[in-house]
Design goal:
The structure holds two protein chains of two kinds. Helices cover 37% and strands 15% of the residues of chain A. Chain A has six helices and seven strands, in the order αββββααβαββαα. Chain A has a domain at 56-129: 3-Layer(aba) Sandwich (Glutaredoxin), CATH 3.40.30.10. Chain A is of the alpha+beta class. Chain B is of the alpha+beta class. In chain B, helix 2 (74-85) runs antiparallel to helix 3 (89-98). In chain B, 28% of the residues lie in helices and 21% in strands. Chain B starts with a helix and ends in a 10-residue tail after the last strand. Chain B has a single domain (25-31, 44-201), classed as Cysteine proteinases (Cathepsin B, Chain A, Alpha-Beta Complex). Chain B contains six helices and eight strands. Classes of the chains: A alpha+beta, B alpha+beta. At the A-B interface, strand 2, strand 3, strand 5, helix 4 and helix 6 of A face helix 1, helix 2, strand 3 and helix 5 of B.
Amino acid sequence: MIRGLLSLVLLISLATCASASVTADGKKTKADAEYGVKYTVEERVITLPQDQDKWYLTVVGDSDAGRYGEVRGWFDSHEHLQKLKRGTHFNAITTDSVMYRDRYAKHFREAPCVRLQSADGKVLFQVSGTNIPMTADALNKAIHAELLRRRNRCDPHRNCRPRPAPTPTPVPEPTPLDDPQPQPLDTAPLDTVVDEQPESDLPPWWLLALLFAAGTSAGVVQKWRETYYPQSTA
Amino acid sequence: MKQLVVVLLLLTSCVGCDGLAINAIGGGIQIASARPTATRKSNIPAFRKEYPTVNLPYALRQKNWRGDLGEGSCVHATMVSLFRWQGRYATAEYWRRSYGNGEYADDTRSTSHNLARKMQRDGIRFAYTVNGDVRFLDWACSTRRGCGVTVMGGRHMVALVHFDEKWAGILDNNDTEKITWVPRETFVAEWLNSNGWAVTPVYTPAPPLPL
């Protein structure tokens, strides 16, 4: 019995030595060669940048094209564009990069392109190809004008703040209308009575038939495409 | 008669609809379509937000490799992927060439296995936690940077590429083909049980796809 207990203690201590070691400064560490994570227990407080709401400024272009380099350089040389770059997440993506090929290619029509997005991806400003202004100053003004237009779009008078509900004075008092005098019924002669059908809420039959035909065609076409042209939906 | 026609029209409108398939795999949930599908007539994503947040293209996902000591390099593989996502391609390639094997988190040891020391030496801007502070994970994914997190009792590191109120998306460097989705609480429990180490470079995340 005692031998058994001693063996068990020995096995446990060996297992502990195998999985944990003591470093030169006396800290316990663990290592797992199979997966590759080692750690010691430390704590460190770091001030993390709270830039969740920062906009994204992206310049896309062919790395060999001079125009791309020129436009990209504006964000380092022009005072206001430089300021815009510092205040946003700035990315310069070349069209020959894997990131562009696999992620962005289908979202850009032409290069070079300058795109400004909100933090959730909404495109606030975009200009590309020959539509890019000739100078940095013109580009800066174009961005500024577009942002100003977006800000004022909801209200031409630049007043988007909610207004309090109006309180009319004096308070209107409802005055009930007098009952109208009874009028004789408009009776028609018996020989002119028309056997009317009750009015239906449904649209006319030809419209229903048209919708039916359109729905059927759309379904058949969609299934046809899915069946015979599956690559076009990728 | 007209009511019958309306019913037929409604049935016809259902032609061509595709269902949504969700497969339960190994305790977690693997959503069949890892990325949002685009509508056929336009490139507008089916979802307003991108899933996962850190949607690194497959070709840029770094697979785990064995270092010269025969150890796995999951920490470095995760860092390489995150460097690429944050636009530091040269740093990523340098890291891939220069480092390997297992790694410690802290910056107080003077051994060669010391991630913080390596990052400081190479001038890398980074942030990490080793005390299991879930706010770090929230921060890392809400800023679209992602982070490396320990799992499997602290023996392995993977990239946390999505973390919202309900789900955690994991990119494992041992299987980079898919994103594994697990409920948030399940992941947090696993992470806390794995020493709660998380680390990420702090650079510019790749821009989101346009809405």
